[in-house]
């Protein structure tokens, strides 16, 4: 369990850090410069002792210590300069994770009808915040300690190459011992995250249903369920803490043991002429002040943070993938499904309340794959109700509705089977690209521009500043028609093979409406248009008249001949726009 978790956590980490490459390079560059003051530390101490204080030249010793102080000051200036690029890495990283978690939660809600519940909130807030805080702490710690460790090893190799072979195996052994505990740590951390999510889910169910719980006197059962969740979460937390305690022992092996060894051997090293007193002191400085903080950071703080970060990112990667959901290869619209019809309504009855008169009463229709159907009828006849039944917004009281072979409200991927454009076009704050590509995140710029051109959006794009132009919240500054065109182009790009336009062109002039319907007709797939103009109906393969709870369908000529209601409607419609 732990290996895939860490691998998927690492994938999310890489994917989310990739856009911040430049800031990361700045962090790495400044960190490399920070190695210099540490590399100088042991050497200056050795020279201060051997060439200064121990040689009876305190002035020289003080001068070397002044060099040490200057190196420390330079390190402080470099550390300060690091904070700007660090922020440029961490904040966009958090924003990206929040966007992934919210997008995935909404995607599940739209596609599978999974309600947006406590787990999504925990993912988008608690888990993302843990990831942000951990990454920030890691980067802050890593830049100083990695450079200090590199500086210490380089300095030690220059000052006392003989000491390197004696001293370095200890920190390496400590790292290996620590590594042995990581696998268990990852598994335990994942169990803790799942327990927290279960608890949040349980709490949102219990709090959401508290009135029902009170009215059924089900409080003891609800309390038992909550207690079980809390106990599971506490047990998982305890298991993580135990693992941490074990790991906390490893740094001593890496640093304290070799420092003691070095001092124990110092008389022999000095007497045999292998190391001077100053070099022993310098080597101890490298160990304690250079390698020591790095190892403590790695094994006590940073290593645990890596485990936490990979664990939490692994979990986020499971529920909120960074990669765009549908690839371009999945997008093409099927041109048929083994001869099965695209939409089937069988004896559908629907009313808005138990005592309300049915809006639809015994409707049976079949729409083939690739069909283009216009739904017409007098105001209040039930056209939008029919569209809502097709989309699974309402369920029939009796009878069945099947869309793309499945019940509209159920099943995974319903958003990939059918897309609805309602009369009120939804346009959100973001770029034009984000608005267009919302249902087809994998679409490239050329595809987006092509779709925009098909809907006559070139002028709008030019005005807003192209695909990167900003769309204000609610589409402020765009006309109702322009908002509809954006929503239509977005749906045009969607993978769904069945599209329902519910008066989605009502704010367009007849020419723009015609262009939009032609674009959808050429796109392929099944098109159901709730029409408000005769021209829309005339361009469809089939017209479906909703009237008095029933439907009649046929061609324009069929309906003119058979239906007085249709003749009446056709008489009131605007004439066709001039060609
Ligand atoms: N949420 C609702 N609750 C109760 N009744 C509703 C609801 N929505 C629609 N109705 C009623 O159901 C009937 C059908 O409404 P619907 O909106 O489907 O008609 P329509 O043919 O789309 O009308 P229009 O062309 O005016 O948009 C109407 O009598 C309407 O008042």
From TrEMBL:
Protein's cellular compartments: Cell membrane
InterPro entries registered for this protein in UniProt: AAA+_ATPase, ABC1_TM_dom, ABC1_TM_sf, ABC_transporter-like_ATP-bd, ABC_transporter-like_CS, P-loop_NTPase, TAT_signal, Type_1_exporter
Membrane-related topology note: Multi-pass membrane protein
- Which parts of the chain span the membrane according to its record? 61-83, 137-157, 163-182, 248-268, 280-299
Which Pfam families does the annotation name? ABC_tran
One example of the protein's molecular function in GO is: ATP binding
Q: Which SMART domains match?
A: AAA
Q: Which positions fall inside the ABC transporter domain?
A: 343-573
Q: Which residues form the ABC transmembrane type-1 domain?
A: 25-293
Keyword set for this entry?
ATP-binding, Membrane, Nucleotide-binding, Transmembrane, Transmembrane helix
Q: What is this protein called?
A: ABC transporter ATP-binding protein
């Amino acid at each position: 369990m732990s290996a895939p978790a860490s691998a998927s956590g690492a994938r999310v980490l890489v994917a989310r850090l990739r856009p911040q490459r430049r800031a990361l390079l700045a962090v790495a560059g400044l960190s490399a410069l920070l190695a210099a003051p540490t590399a100088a530390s042991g050497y200056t101490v050795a020279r201060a002792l051997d060439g200064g204080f121990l040689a009876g030249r305190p002035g020289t010793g003080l001068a070397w210590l002044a060099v040490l102080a200057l190196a420390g000051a330079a390190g402080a200036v470099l550390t300060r300069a690091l904070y700007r690029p660090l922020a440029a890495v961490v904040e966009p990283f958090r924003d990206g994770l929040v966007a992934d978690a919210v997008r995935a939660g909404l995607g599940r809600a739209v596609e599978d009808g999974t309600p947006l519940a406590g787990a999504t909130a925990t993912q988008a807030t608690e888990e993302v915040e843990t990831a942000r805080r951990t990454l920030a702490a890691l980067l802050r710690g890593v830049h100083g300690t990695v450079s200090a460790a590199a500086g210490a090893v380089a300095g030690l190799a220059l000052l006392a190459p003989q000491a390197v072979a004696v001293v370095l195996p200890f920190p390496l052994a400590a790292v290996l011992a620590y590594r042995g505990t990581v696998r268990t740590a990852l598994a335990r951390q994942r169990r803790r995250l799942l327990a927290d999510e279960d608890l949040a889910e349980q709490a949102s169910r219990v709090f959401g249903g508290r009135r029902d719980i009170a009215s059924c006197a089900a409080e003891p059962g609800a309390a038992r369920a909550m207690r079980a969740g809390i106990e599971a979460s506490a047990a998982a937390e305890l298991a993580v803490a135990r693992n941490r305690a074990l790991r906390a022992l490893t740094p001593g092996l890496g640093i304290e043991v070799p420092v003691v060894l070095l001092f124990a051997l110092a008389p022999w090293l000095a007497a045999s002429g292998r190391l001077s007193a100053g070099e022993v002191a310098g080597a101890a400085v490298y160990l304690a002040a250079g390698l020591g903080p790095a190892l403590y950071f790695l094994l006590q703080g940073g290593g645990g943070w890596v485990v936490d970060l990979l664990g939490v990112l692994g979990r986020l990667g499971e529920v909120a993938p960074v990669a765009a959901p549908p690839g371009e290869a999945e997008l093409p619209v099927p041109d048929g499904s083994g001869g099965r019809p695209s939409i089937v309504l069988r004896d559908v009855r629907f009313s808005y309340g138990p005592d309300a008169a049915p809006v639809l009463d015994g409707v049976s229709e079949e729409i083939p794959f690739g069909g283009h159907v216009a739904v017409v009828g007098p105001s209040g006849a039930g056209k939008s109700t029919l569209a809502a039944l097709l989309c699974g917004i309402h369920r029939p009281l009796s009878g069945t509705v099947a869309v793309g072979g499945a019940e509209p409200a159920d099943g995974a991927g319903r958003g990939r089977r059918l897309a609805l454009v309602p009369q009120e076009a939804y346009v959100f704050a973001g770029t034009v690209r984000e608005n267009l590509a919302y249902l087809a995140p994998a679409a490239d710029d050329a595809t987006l521009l092509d779709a925009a051109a098909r809907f006559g959006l070139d002028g709008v794009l030019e005005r807003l500043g192209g695909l990167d132009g900003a769309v204000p919240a609610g589409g402020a500054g765009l006309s109702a028609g322009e908002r509809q065109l954006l929503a239509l182009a977005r749906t045009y790009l969607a993978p769904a093979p069945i599209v329902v336009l519910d008066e989605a062109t009502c704010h367009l002039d007849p020419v723009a409406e015609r262009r939009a319907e032609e674009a959808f007709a050429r796109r392929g797939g099944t098109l159901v248009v709730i029409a408000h103009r005769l021209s829309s109906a005339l361009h469809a393969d089939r017209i479906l008249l909703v009237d008095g709870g029933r439907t009649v369908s046929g061609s324009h000529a069929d309906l003119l001949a058979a239906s007085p209601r249709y003749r009446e409607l056709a008489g009131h419609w605007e004439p066709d726009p001039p060609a």
